[in-house]
Amino acid sequence: MELLIKDIIKGISRSYGESFFSTIALQLDKVIQSDYTFIARIDPVAESSHTVALVAHGKVVDNFTYALADTPCQEVSDNSICVYPCSVAQLYPKDQLLLDMKIEGYLGAPLQSSTGEVIGIVVALYEQEIPDQHLALTLFELFSGRIACEFERLDQERQLIELNSSLDTKVRERTQALESALEHLHMAQDKLIETEKMAALGDLVAGVAHEVNTPLGIAITAESHLAEQFTKFKDKLDAQHLSIKDMQTYVEANEQSLPMIARNLERAKELIINFKSMATDQVDIKSERLSLNKYYQRLISTLTPLLKRKQATITFKGCDNDFINTFPGCHAQLLTNLVTNSIQHGFVKCSSKNLITIRIAHDDNGDFIVDYEDNGEGINEEIQTRIMEPFFTSSRDQINSGLGLSIAYNLASHNLKGSFAYLPSKKGAHFSYQFKSLERSV
């Protein structure tokens, strides 16, 4: 007996899945000298059984499905060991299969899961009376646990694949949604580049990227943790060291990580969609040679209706040698943004004392410098370092986009190839921007 067991164990030691079932069925068939030996999976819903390994007269043959009703296998599926040394076909006259195969002896044992549920059966059929039912029964009882364990291992592996497939699907769906949002963002970006009215796009994208980085970082971390748990789970599964605790740990990791990934990918998607909606009016960028003094005076005159909201006035002082090749649309947008900023934030009350001063200077290096000052409330020291940030505003409740000064900064530094700065002031707000004529900056 000991040698027989060793031979069987040796034969199945490196087998898994379908190969395992076929190998152990062949080994058992050889030892117990049955005419048919099979291992079958029980389907309690359909009340049927499907063989996963079938050996007929010493050879593996095709599997088949059969109904359990009125068969000895039905008793085995009810968690009973059945042994009929002879005349089994007469005892089960409705089992046509036994009659057709001319079966005389039957021996079957249930395969129980770790929870005690019958998930399969192992059966030996004899065309003659069973020669040594004690040997066959002992081997069935001895190896039924190993066979059932392989059933469970395959079930867990299948569930694991389905779970990870589901995770892949969810991540793919969220990724597609994010890619779709990004595609819309690029469309908005192309439109902004065409019209050049949102020259601040580079900084805006950087600001959005910074905001999106947090939920994406969380999603990536959660996915990395889940991947690590999966690797540990699979290693233990392959080594047959998997415990209930390991399974619970993996399920808990999925329960925690999947909602976190979904939630943060959705948050990243919302941030990008919100950015697209924040694109403001754009500026037509065409170079032109003009008198800077006259152009600014025309700009100031067009801003009169805006100034009337707070009874504000503008004083202007130009410079000599003011002809320049530049983008007039950039100057129009830049000055409009600064005046709007003063009206909305600097001048709290309507007053004839509300004053904006604009001075243009031209230095020996060929640089033009525009000084812009108002005598309003000024900018709190706590936020002075943030006022150029895209989307930053101290009056979100007034539905301000927080893009005005950011756009002004980008118009001056990017389109006009100059600089833009806030200069600390004891009263009011003071800005200065600098640029060259286009032919001098090439």
Topology, please?
Elements: H1 2-12, H2 17-32, E1 36-43, E2 48-56, E3 59-61, E4 65-67, H3 72-77, E5 82-84, H4 88-91, H5 96-101, E6 105-112, E7 118-126, H6 133-195, H7 201-238, H8 244-277, E8 288-291, H9 292-302, H10 304-308, E9 313-317, E10 323-326, H11 328-346, E11 355-362, E12 367-374, H12 404-415, E13 419-422, E14 430-436, H13 438-441
Parallel strand pairs: 9-11
Antiparallel strand pairs: 1-2, 1-7, 2-3, 2-4, 5-6, 6-7, 8-10, 11-12, 12-14, 13-14
Helix pairs in contact: 1-2, 2-6, 6-8, 7-8, 11-12
Describe the model.
52% of the residues lie in helices and 19% in strands. It has 13 helices and 14 strands. Strands 1, 2, 3, 4, 5, 6 and 7 form a seven-stranded antiparallel sheet that branches. A hairpin with a 4-residue loop joins strand 11 (355-362) and strand 12. Helix 7 (201-238) runs antiparallel to helix 8. The longest helix has 63 residues, at 133-195. Mean pLDDT is 81; it is low at 192-204 and 274-283.
**What is the averaged pLDDT score?**
81
Helix content: 40-55%
Rg for CA atoms? 41 Å
Flag low-confidence runs.
192-204, 274-283
State the main characteristics:
19% strand; 13 helices; single chain; 442 residues; alpha+beta; five-stranded mixed β-sheet; seven-stranded antiparallel β-sheet
